[in-house]
Amino acid sequence: MTNPTRKILTPHAINGLPLRNRLAVAPMTRVSASETGNASAAMAQYYARFAQGGFALVISEGIYTDQRHAQGYPFQPGLTDAEQAAAWQDVTKRVHAHHGAMFAQLMHAGALSQGNRFCEQSAAPSAIRPKGEQMRFYYGEGHYHVPKALSDEEIADAIEGFAQAAKRAIGQAGFDGLEIHAANGYLLDQFLTDYANQRTDRWGGSTQNRIALTLEVIKAVRAAVGSAVPVGVRISQGKVNDFGHKWANGEADAEVIFGALGDSTVDFIHTTEFEAWQPAFENGEASLVALAHRFAPQVSIIANGGLHGIDRADTAIADGADVIALGKAALANPDYPQRLASGQAIAEFDGSVLGPIADIKASELAQ
Hints:
- The protein has helices at 4-8, 41-52, 82-87, 89-97, 152-173, 187-192, 207-210, 212-225, 250-263, 288-295, 310-318, 328-332, 336-342, 362-365; strands at 12-14, 17-19, 23-25, 57-64, 101-107, 123-124, 148-149, 177-184, 231-239, 268-272, 300-304, 323-326.
- The protein has a single domain (4-365), classed as TIM Barrel, CATH 3.20.20.70.
- The two termini are 37 Å apart.
- The chain is globular, with a radius of gyration of 19 Å.
- 34% of the residues lie in helices and 16% in strands.
- The protein is α/β, with parallel strands linked by helices.
């Protein structure tokens, strides 16, 4: 039997894209772009460190996809025009120079928008105020605003925004693949979430209807970039504004969601949970990773959520994960793969790096 720990350091491929190991950097919002959404020199240095430290795959922070309702935060990067796409070229080139691959995470904030230079009102499946409060370390304060309910025309525009951003990511910015952000409470997850989506049209109601927008985005993105580009989707239960949320129908919902994604054209599913090794549901035993692998065995599974301890990573691999994505552990250890290979100690994460604002700090770049 293969030693799972050793397996982490073995190659893997996603839709023909070779990865030198099975370690990825998870997407993390760092609000360090220009005010107009252009990737910065600090971002290029920040991302390059992970590839230099041995990570096979770097997944970008959420990148907004249109000049309407998609932007979520001030100083968030975008892929909405040629200038923004060109600004990413230095980032991707520097990651490639260290033999890493980089995926663009395409994100529409929906109701969770805390700052959008294109419009003042957020938009969502239904005009329902999101739970929780805005995040201060992303320049937010107070309750979320009540969003407007998207019309069919606006939904079509949002889908097209994903497709055009995908085309720029691959054709102009130099990314190797794409991750569609359908997790953590943002727009596509809002459509999936029962209490956030009160629509009575084809986008609301059953779980099958509520996952439909994600499937339409996948279809449009695939059409925009072709079959050879790695395309995947990020899925979660919990949200930045509703940490403990669980799908109402438990494993039955997991079967519908992961089954539908597996039957689409995605090459990978990226699951994220606070503790990825834990059972996904109170009365079950299977983790979300295991359920994704069970119901979508034909795609690669990327697992994220507290997996920096090698025993936890081994558990996720045994559950069916092909790649382990690290967030806070990668911030503390940009050279995590090299440390793991050489048996060096793994540094603990210092939360002060994300405060008072979660932008990229000079101290990080000096690591």
